[in-house]
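Working notes for the structural subgroup meeting. M.R. asked for a predicted model of this chain before we commit to crystallization trials. I am recording the input and output together here so anyone reviewing the notebook later can reproduce the run.

Input as submitted:
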Amino acid sequence: MKTHVENRKKVIIFGDLPLATKVVMHLQELNYIDIVGVVTNSEKAVAIDAFDCECLYNYAITNNIKTYTLEELVFNFNKKDFDFGLSVRFSKILNSQILALFQKGILNFHGGLLPEYGGLYSSCHEILQGSKLAGGTLHMINDEKIDTGDIVRRCEFEIMPTDTSESVFIKTQRALYDGFCNIINDFFYEKMKFIPQSNYINKGFISQYFHKNSLEKELQLDDATKKLISTHARGYEFSKHERGYIVYNGQKIYFTTKNLEGIL
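Returned structure, recorded in token form:
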């Protein structure tokens, strides 16, 4: 049972995915946190996620947690009404009106390592660029710029030879949650030292930002290689039988003429 604590921290959570639900559930266990509400989307489908729990909207409704839209938040509250915000893989940009509502700022859960993998599809680009490390970044939202704020913690893990963008994505969700749980008390009691991303860049970290058109799925090969792959794929394309493949680092990489998700 929670005991009474003076000066409880007033918190708003932005998010949709089960990761956001896990964060809210953890905050509910802390006697110094007052969850004023959540900003979430009732139409958000539950995507692939590391956690087997419902999306944040459903959890909020079931547990009588007030839900808001961004517009409702601005309309109903004044500047600095809240202490902290947590943007947990939230897909919308938080503008200056939203940022002004928080005395201590908003912590963002970014799904890639910063400053190397800002923007979208971090788990894809970490694989495609041959990075040895992947992970997520807990960073402050300093302004309306995307993924540029001071870093609170880089939640890193090593990429395995058999990892895919999906497995890296799932591991990143877990790494972000574990990283947040490890710093939660120090963060809310303002004992954390935030590190500007420029410090990492000055040490030789590359700074990259990937937009929605940053993925080029067609692998550029010479025509002879393309013909060989095409012939091999078509020659072994038969229902309920193993497709053609190559072996690389002990792993089978299969060929197919079909989009396995059924998307044209």
